[in-house]
Amino acid sequence: MPGMARAKRIGILTAGGDSPGLNAAIRGIGKAAIDTYGMTVIGFRDGFRGLAENRSQPLDHRLSGILTVGGTILGTSRDKPHRMLVDGEVVDMTGAVVDTYKKHRLDALVCLGGGGTAKNALRLVRAGLDVITLPKTIDNDIVMTDASFGFATALDIATEAIDRLHSTAHSHHRIIVVEIMGHRAGWLALGAGVAGGADVILIPEVPYDVNSIAAAIRRRVQSGSAFSIVAVAEGARSPEDAAAFEAAELRKKKASTPDEIREAVAALAAVEAAHAGNTYRLAAQLEALTGLESRVTILGYVQRGGTPSAADRLLATRLGSAGADLINQGVFGVMVAARGEGAEPVPLDQVAGKRKPVPPDHPWVQAARHVGTCLGD
Length: 377
Ligand code: F6P
What we know:
Blueprint: E1 9-14, H1 22-36, E2 40-44, H2 48-52, E3 56-58, E4 84-86, E5 89-91, H3 94-103, E6 108-113, H4 115-126, E7 131-137, E8 149-150, H5 151-172, E9 175-180, H6 187-196, E10 200-202, H7 210-222, E11 228-233, H8 239-254, H9 258-275, H10 278-290, E12 294-298, H11 310-329, E13 334-339, E14 342-347, H12 363-370
Parallel strand pairs: 1-2, 1-6, 6-7, 7-8, 7-13, 9-11, 9-12, 10-11
Antiparallel strand pairs: 2-3, 4-5, 13-14
The structure holds 6-O-phosphono-beta-D-fructofuranose.
6-O-phosphono-beta-D-fructofuranose binds next to loops.
């Protein structure tokens, strides 16, 4: 009909590690887009790879019954549009992504992910696409947002695991070292450690000295508690290892020529490989230093699997529906950030590739110290 605006068409993809609340967010933005604004919603499979390869599915009839479902109905990947492995070669697929966007006559692309996804989304904005992102991660390390969906559920799961580990630690007079996700940020280990009453909490932001940890455990033994729970984030390190890791990261950041980038990536991978198995080494060191038997529990993907908590469903639904509002208003190039009870757009260049570490004087750290928890320093 002349003068009548065409209904908007939006694409949705999920990128990076899966996380509780992804389906709740897909449902939130999808239902708001369809029911409130009469838009058409298309899902792209497996993150940016599905967009580059034009693998899609209509979402209109797939949005019911997914609110409580874990993982992502769209599938996910860590592929980047500008550096994608195709037949064994690293290829810039940005052009293919733009083609898919145009083929589907999209008015907007919604990318659900963390800081890395925001970086890829910003590249697509610079390639001329209208993109927004929603903050997803169990690591809680996305800048400029009060919260990201996934974290609250993972925090509940890790806390319950610590609660349950107490029984065995206490009954068998053991040290149990429980490894919690978080290669770069310690929010999850810190939050679950405080909520679960861990005796020692080790996070990447506070390098640890194994002798200080052993001394704290021996003090507990002397005061009648012949067991300890050590909550360790994947990325917690000694000061020497932390310095080597930081130097390797800096080298990668500064690398500019293809040769420099290749060498810096290899150097960082070597530092990370040397860190593998660190939790087991730590447990063995603590056993030798304290005389208490030690055991390791690695929580792994249990932390990000299964049904999202009520808090994450609520957050994902309100950020998703706020995303539909922004698309309707024509606001692009932003992440939909949680601010208090509401949501606000934040320019992607303020989020892209950035990370929110735990400040060493954060109230959660202070609270842990005040109740006698050893932070390993
Ligand atoms: O989603 C973030 C995260 O959970 C990190 O805490 C963890 O180190 C990483 O993903 C591992 O994920 P994957 O094995 O899928 O690469």
